[in-house]
Amino acid sequence: MKKIKAAFQSFGHVIVDPVLYVAASGLLLAIATVCSLGGGAVADFGTLLSAATNSAVIGNLSVIFAVGLTAGFAKKQKANAAVYGLICYLMFLYVNNAYLTLTKQLAEAGEMGLFGTGQAMVLGLQVTDINVFGGIIVGCLSGWVYNKLIDVNVPEVARIYGGPRLALLAMTLVSIVFALVVTIVWPPVAETINHASVFINASGGLGQFIYSFLNRALIPVGLHHFMWMPFDYTAIGGTAIVAGESYSGAANIFFAELPHIASGAITTINDSVRFAMFGFGKEFLSLGAALAIVYNARTENKKAIMAMIVPLYVSAMLSGITEPLDFILLFASPALFMVYSLFYGLSETLLYLFGVRLFNIFGGIELITVNIALPWGVTKFPLYIGLGVVFAIVSAVVFTVMIRKMNIMTPGRAKDWAAEVDGDASQTMPVATITSSEQNEIATTIIDGLGGAENITSLGCCMTRLRVEVKNPELVSQDTIKKAIDKGLFVNGTNVQIVVGMDVHEWYDMLRPILRLED
């Protein structure tokens, strides 16, 4: 069970990086949509920008996930792993197409193209329509094979076939088997996914509440990616036909509809977008939490608390990085964090029931750039903002009542709080601004807190956290780690997650050479 849980957590943090590229492309697509509303050269530029984002990136998520997951899972030589992952995915496509051709199973396109036939065009090849799942499965398989074979000793005379090449030789057979198996196995799996999607969509407000609540409640264990990612990028979130093309997943459907919504060709946004509105809590519920923490701090601590909380809220509101605030609430009181999660479920349910339909996963920057040019009658943007203000106020009041009635020690409420946090200011500064000697000292402190280098079996990172596997969790000292970085810490068995922030890759690069970890 521990290995299964560790595998899910590993997948959760590896999948984030490819998704972030999609988020960046979404912002550019919004700009392309605005340009397309103009004329002449501006509209032409919009067309080119749309091709570079919607067609190139969002239209090829399978290959992006296959390469991203393979490189993400790779424990060393990640550049080689990326090339190897691309080859593995191409092998899967070509073998599947060849098998369908040999067995005369290629479907004929109808008025709606290949929609409904169980097949699709991917990189110019007609293949079994396994959608984004194909890239995800290939990425996981190729990453697993790669790590198993990368360190296998090969005789000197055959050294050219060692390392990544040995993994490729093995994965060739795996790709062939997988490409053949999906033609038999995938149709019933796709039918099951379709039924699950229909059930979730038919559940209305209840299904929305469960989805939104779990999406926040699972954050401490790092499994929230398993809630939103399938709904936003796979058929679990729904399937729709846009301009004669089939799209699956809330995010993919919305971005396909985006230029048509802006032009007025589409007057209603697909309901699946409700699975992509959880940025609401990042902007407004985080504000409620921040206000409650500042308001309930002791008078002598308020300035210091504001200096700490305001940057955390700004980061949460603009870029969607809520984990520092999340962990503050969780560590202060699990009950407080649970109510915070319930507010997420309630708020997104009301947005859905009141007919708000807009796209917002990663926070305020995305909210404005992606949605502001769309007709407010379609998105109900003003209602979104109005509900946000209401929820910010209500959540702040509820959190305040809980903090006072339950005497919850949120930051600044303890008499000796200032003394507790008085330490080296470098722990809250970006790595790039810290001197080399300070970096070494901080890295050494973190490693000591993890039980020493010999207790660390693997080191990775996701969007905001260092993720570490240790041999003996009893050797982990949370107090020692917090001397170096104290934005949030979660220990679950041998898995240790240290919240760092958006510069997590710099922290990872700082620790890796000290631990003698290879690329």
UniProtKB/TrEMBL annotation:
Family matches, as Pfam families: PTS_EIIB, PTS_EIIC
Active site: C462
Membrane topology: Multi-pass membrane protein
Keywords: Cell membrane, Kinase, Membrane, Phosphotransferase system, Sugar transport, Transferase, Transmembrane, Transmembrane helix, Transport
Ranges where the PTS EIIB type-1 domain occurs: 440-519
Domain PTS EIIC type-1: 2-415
Main localization category: membrane
Subcellular location(s) per record: Cell membrane
Signal peptide: none
Transmembrane segments: 20-43, 55-74, 81-100, 120-146, 166-186, 198-219, 231-255, 275-297, 304-321, 327-346, 358-377, 383-403
SUPFAM superfamilies from the UniProt entry: Glucose permease domain IIB
NCBIfam families (alphabetical): EIIB_glc
Protein name: PTS transporter subunit EIIC
